Amino acid sequence: MKAKLREWARRYLPAEALSVLATLAGAATAWHLAPGREVAAALAGTWAGNVAYFGWLLLQDVVQTRRQLRAAGQPYTRRTLARNLRALVVEFGPAEVLDSLLIRPTLMVWLPRWLGSRNTGILLAKLLADVTFYVPAIISYELSKKRLRNFGE
User: Fold this and answer.
1) Residue 83 falls inside a structural domain
2) What is the domain extent for residue 80?
3) Of 29, 56, 97, 149, which residue is the least packed, with the fewest Cβ within 10 Å?
4) Does the residue 129 lie in any domain?
């Protein structure tokens, strides 16, 4: 189990760190541009965090796949990129839809109000939403590894 926890930490923690920064920056920018528009700030924070998070993961997957293919003497093609993207959709699809369209924006609207602090509310909302996000994502990741992430064949 320790090996799995290390694997998941290596995969998800750098993406999470970037996502936290992007979430705060996106929400702060929206609050600055549209004061009082909490829903806009919540959505901006959510989507900025998503771009940073999934951009990092896709970059890591592409780098790893290129290494595997290079070792096997095979090229990285558009078809390979499509396979990398499909693996991410399988890993995150169901969890992401619920997270981005309902759970995370709702928490990002209400927690800053309840706590009386924008940044604390946004950070707490992100952490709470991550719990409901990672359980199905990790299960999907583990189930997809052999079928969708083995490029050295």
Assistant:
1) yes
2) 2-148
3) 97
4) yes
91 Cβ partners below 8 Å, 6+ apart?
A: 137, 140, 141, 144
Residue 69 neighbours by CB under 8 Å, 6+ apart? 75, 76, 80, 151, 152
Q: What is the pLDDT of residues 97-148, one digit of tens each?
A: 888 788 988 998 899 999 999 889 988 998 899 888 888 899 888 888 877 7
Q: What 8-state DSSP symbol labels residue 149?
A: S
CA 55 → CA 19, 28, 72, 95, 136, distances in Å? 10, 21, 26, 17, 20
Q: Which amino acid, 96?
A: E
Q: Comparing C-alpha atoms, which of 60, 30, 61, 62 is closest to residue 43?
A: 30
Q: What is the pTM of this model?
A: 0.78
Residue 10: name the closest of 109, 138, 108 by CA: 138
The answer as to whether 153 is a domain residue is: no
Cα gap 153→87, rounded to integer Å: 16
